[in-house]
Amino acid sequence: MGSHVAGGVKNRVEHWREFLATDFITILWLTLRVSGTSVLLSSLVGIPLGAWLGLSCGRRVLLLRLLVQTGMALPPVVVGLVLYILLSRSGPLAWLGWLFTPRAMVVAQFILALPFVIGITQSAVAAMPGELRWQLRSLGATQWQIRRTVLWEARQGVLLAVAAAFGRSLSEVGAVLMVGGNIQGHTRVLTTAVVLETGKGQFGVALALGGTLLCLALLVNALIVRLDGSPPRYE
Amino acid sequence: MNWQPFSRVGSTAILIVTLGCAPSVPPAPSLTLATTTSTRDSGLLDVLIPQFEQQTGIAVRVIAVGSGQALEIGRRGDADVLLTHAPEAEEAFVAVGHARARLPLMHNDFVFVGPSDDPAELQQAATLRDVLTRIAQTAAPFVSRGDQSGTHLKEQSLWKLAEQQPAGAWYIQGGAGMSETLRMANEMQAYTLSDRGTFLSQRHRLDLAILFAGVPQLRNPYAVLVVAPQSPLPGQAAAAIRQAAAAQQFADFLLSPQARNLIAQFGTETFGQPLFFPSAP
Asked: pLDDT digits over A70-119, tens only?
């Protein structure tokens, strides 16, 4: 029995060393690359859409808002499953050849993050005092100038939208597991590595990876908060 | 208006995206292996695949899922080679032409594990039928994989063999992989069916013992399936032929005497006994 326990400990130490030396950096880098790309793309698409939605009103806008907010509840595994079927060799998007590649993971996270960017931007823009728009209009600003200025004034909320999108992308596991396949050195990110190590019973490594994920989130959010050093005040 | 911090972040973001969009297609040829989790989690593939990669220069990408999912991935043409342990499902896979043949690679066996105080007295059971009857009749908690994996399919066939209906509060469908299921059974001090390899590799964390094993019906055979190439996508006929050749090469390697030797020796150092036994050629 004793030799088994010793074997286990030796195994575990070896596992750690091997893991830190080879996989860890690759995993960290891919996580940043995939989540960074998906957040940037969803921000580029979502911020203008959210600003437009926040400044519009009417029945149709209400319906769009409903759709966007429902999108925030999209289950990652369902997004993963649908995307899998589309990208599969037997699916309509097979010609892209994206299944089990980081690109498929970017697409999945883009779909999951987009509703957050649109929804939070929209509510931040809509919350701007109405007088701001009237004032701008009376000063002779064009529709585009008004939109730009309101968006700028609402930047705190827009940054929150980006932070939320990043959080969603970074912490999501179901979709990237399905369309990425969790392939070592190719499509393994922090969350899928946590699933794998937990499955193997390597709770220590899994916890360390979880901690890394949190540190990453902290760093990125610190950057975002710094950008927003002096929040606008209306007095 | 101070735009400076924005432009700094903007350029960082653009950098990340540029890198993110950089072609990630590796120059080396590669093939995709969809396999049951036990071959990866036990560490066997870490011994076999580097050998193959070294000899051929073909990189192997491993997707480890339940046998059910692995076969589905193969059926859709998203993997080149499958390594699974679900004989009936594999035969069906071959019968409909998704693979040319089912190539027996190796086997180990399934074991019934449970709490060492053994409330259902499995250790006194004489036959497999007796084991399942005892569990069902004492309504002792039993954790099932419940995920259509090879182990789950095996378990279902055993209940059928014993003419027992696993139902009720005692029958817990975990829906998880083998290691998680073993841990779940450990927490609940419940019975479960496991492949011997995974149980041995997790044993030092578990307060469970092997209570019944060693009958022929508990044999756990693993087979290789080379996925039959589907009609190639336009403009990719040559690539499809290369891919099929690489898949065949990998199957040949797995069935070679060299790989059989590696399989036979695997685990003797760490666990004091082999985890897999190569099938006779």
From this structure: 999 999 999 999 999 999 988 899 889 899 999 999 999 999 999 999 99
Q: What ranges do the domains of chain B cover?
A: 29-108+220-278, 110-219
Q: Is A53 left (phi over 0), alpha (psi -120 to 50) or beta?
A: alpha
Q: Which tokens in the block code for residue B205? A: 């964390």
Query: CATH assignment of B110-219?
Result: 3.40.190.10
Say which CATH topology domain B29-108+220-278 has.
D-Maltodextrin-Binding Protein; domain 2 (3.40.190)
Asked whether the beta carbons of residue B78 and residue A99 sit closer than 8 angstroms, the reply is: yes
Beta pairing, strands B142-144 & B171-173: parallel
Chain A interface includes B77 (CB < 8 A): yes
B2: closest CA among A148, A229, A150, A146?
Answer: A229
Domain chopping of chain A, boundaries: 20-227
Q: Does A20-227 carry CATH code 3.40.50.1010?
A: no
Q: What angle do CA B266, B268, B272 make, to 5 degrees?
A: 150
- Give the angle A36-A41-A47 at the CA atoms, nearest 5°: 115
Burial of B150 (0-12, 13-18, 19+ CB in 10 A): buried
Query: A5: which chain B residues are within 8 Å (Cβ-Cβ)?
Result: 204
Per-residue model confidence as pLDDT tens digits over A26-41? 999 999 999 999 999 9
**Chain A environment of B20 (Cβ under 8 Å):** 33-34, 36-37, 102, 106
Q: For chain A, say whether B64 makes contact (Cβ under 8 Å).
A: yes
| Contacts (Cβ under 8 Å, ≥6 apart) of A132 | A149, A150, A153
State pTM to two decimals.
0.78
Alpha helical stretches, state H, B96-236 = 128-138, 150-161, 178-188, 196-202
For residue B219, what are the β-bridge partners?
Answer: B109
B61 CA: distance to closest CA in chain A (Å): 6
Contact across the interface for A227 and B179, Cβ inside 8 Å: no
- Within this chain, domains B29-108+220-278 and B110-219 share the same CATH topology: yes
The CA R_g of chain A, rounded to the nearest whole Å, is 22
ipTM of the complex: 0.71
Q: Which residues pair with B104 in a beta bridge?
A: B223
Q: Quick check: B20 and A106 CB within 8 A? A: yes
**Are A227 and B76 an interchain contact pair (Cβ–Cβ within 8 Å)?**
no
Residues B31, B61: Cα–Cα separation, whole Å:
6
Q: Measure Cα distances from A17 to A20, A24, A87, B39 in Å.
A: 5, 10, 36, 22
Q: How close A61 comes to chain B (CA, Å)?
A: 30
Alpha helical stretches, state H, A56-187: 59-71, 76-87, 102-126, 130-138, 143-153, 155-171, 174-180
Query: How close B154 gets to chain A, by Cα (Å)?
Result: 21
